[in-house]
Design goal:
By secondary structure, the chain is mainly alpha-helical. The protein is 45% helix and 8% strand. The chain has helices spanning 8-23, 27-31, 61-73, 98-111, 122-134, 139-145, 151-154, 162-168; strands at 38-39, 44-49, 53-58. A three-stranded antiparallel beta sheet has the order 1-2-3. The protein is elongated.
Length: 177
């Protein structure tokens, strides 16, 4: 809601935030999506992921709708094949994930969200994983969605589900439960 979708920049920023929040993409992955990487018929996109991996990711309807709104009534004319381009001239694709991180930081500021240790694109990835964990997804399922190469990387999300951790915690000697 912090994006003014009546403006071209607001539609772009909303589409970027939807990709971060709904798909758990990294900032660099969003910045590097090419128009040729979106397969509208299959409802998926090709990601150039961490470690030079290429992976296909399903595109939920709400994310697709946000991208379509940006492409139809927001993306400026550009020779760039990148999905997201600068709103101000020159209308070129973002060079890195830094621009995506700034879009996320600005949206968090507009929404008045404070008290986060890390303010930027990664908070959306972490929030998605936390929400999935609280909804009953396994760490293995979350790791697959986030494309983690190592299970230990996904385990950092277990620390936030305090209620689930309480069910497996051992009783401390001498302390009533």
């Amino acid at each position: 809601e912090s994006c003014d979708r009546t403006t071209a920049m607001g539609r772009r920023d909303y589409a970027v935030l939807m990709m971060l929040a709904k798909l758990g993409l990294r900032a660099t992955e969003v910045a590097m999506i090419d128009l040729n990487h979106v397969d509208w018929r299959a409802g998926e996109m090709l990601l150039l992921a961490k470690g030079r991996q290429r992976t296909r990711m399903p595109m939920p309807p709400d994310v697709g709708a946000a991208i379509v709104a940006y492409l139809q009534d927001g993306r400026p004319q550009s020779a760039s094949r990148r999905l997201f381009v600068r709103a101000l001239a020159p209308h070129v694709g973002f060079a890195s994930g830094c621009a995506i991180t700034m879009i996320a930081k600005t949206a968090l500021d507009r929404a008045g969200i404070e008290g986060c240790a890390h303010r930027g694109a990664h908070i959306f990835r972490h929030s998605l994983a936390t929400d999935l964990l609280r909804s009953g997804a396994t760490l293995s399922e979350i790791g697959q969605l986030l494309r983690h190469g190592n299970h230990d990387t996904t385990r950092i999300y277990a620390k936030v589900d305090v209620e689930a951790l309480r069910t497996v915690s051992l009783r401390w000697p001498g302390v009533a439960r």
